[in-house]
Amino acid sequence: MGGGYWGWGMGGFWMIASILFWTGILTLAAILISRLFARRGEARVGGGSATPMEILDRRYAAGEITEKEYLKIKKGLSKK
Length: 80
Fold this sequence. Notes:
This protein has about 80 residues and is mainly alpha-helical. It has a domain at about 45-80. It has helices at about 10-45, 50-60, 65-80. α2 (about 50-60) packs antiparallel against α3 (about 65-80). The radius of gyration is 30 Å and the shape is rod-shaped. Keywords: Membrane, Transmembrane, Transmembrane helix.
């Protein structure tokens, strides 16, 4: 007989707080997962540990550059 809302005085606040809490948790999880996969992708693409000579050898072996270009670049790298 209390209008059917007995005990629900702060219900609206906690409902909003719960929605904000779970939205924050899900956002944090999405950011962490995306960064994890982004790092794995970087490792596959270049790795960052190859020397210029190794990169040159790989490009020549893959047919990206001609023998003439390979020798010219190799000569330039050996001067440094």
